[in-house]
Amino acid sequence: MQVSVELGLCEMMSREAINPQIAPKDGNWGFDVSEREAMLPAGTVDNNVKRVYKELPQWEEPVSQTRARYEQIVKDLADDYPTENLLLVTHGEGVGVALSAFLKNATVYEVEYCAYVELKRPIFKKDQSFRVGEFEVLTHTGQTGVSYFLPSPSSKTS
């Protein structure tokens, strides 16, 4: 298995997730991707990967923008590697968005430590190009550490 660091999967860059007292005053988090990659076993890092985000999001990123970022990064990475199985490692909010963005009307109310969401989508190959379908959420509530609810279907009365 090869890995790569994608900055778009980072924590929410806001006081909802990070205590503002520990946030750097100059906005520089001092996160050096090369330094982190050097900690991994030799041959693990995939140097051919093109990062979607070249830098960390700015401090005080609005929650709505963070959620949109998580949804978009899942789509972008899946589109960049349509024939690959991907394991995206992120923080709780990102895991919750991986479910709520692709399961209509789902409301995530708990994401446990080390929780995960499983998604799949159809890939159609024609000549040298790919066409993709919509993501399907395979995770059931509480099954993998993510708890959510769906609105109950409205019943008709006669």
From TrEMBL:
Gene3D superfamilies noted in UniProt: Phosphoglycerate mutase-like (3.40.50.1240)
This protein's name: Phosphoglycerate mutase family protein
Superkingdom, natural source: Eukaryota
InterPro entries: His_Pase_superF_clade-1 (IPR013078), His_PPase_superfam (IPR029033), Phosphatase_SH3-domain (IPR051710)
Coiled coil residues, start to end: none
One Pfam family this sequence matches: His_Phos_1
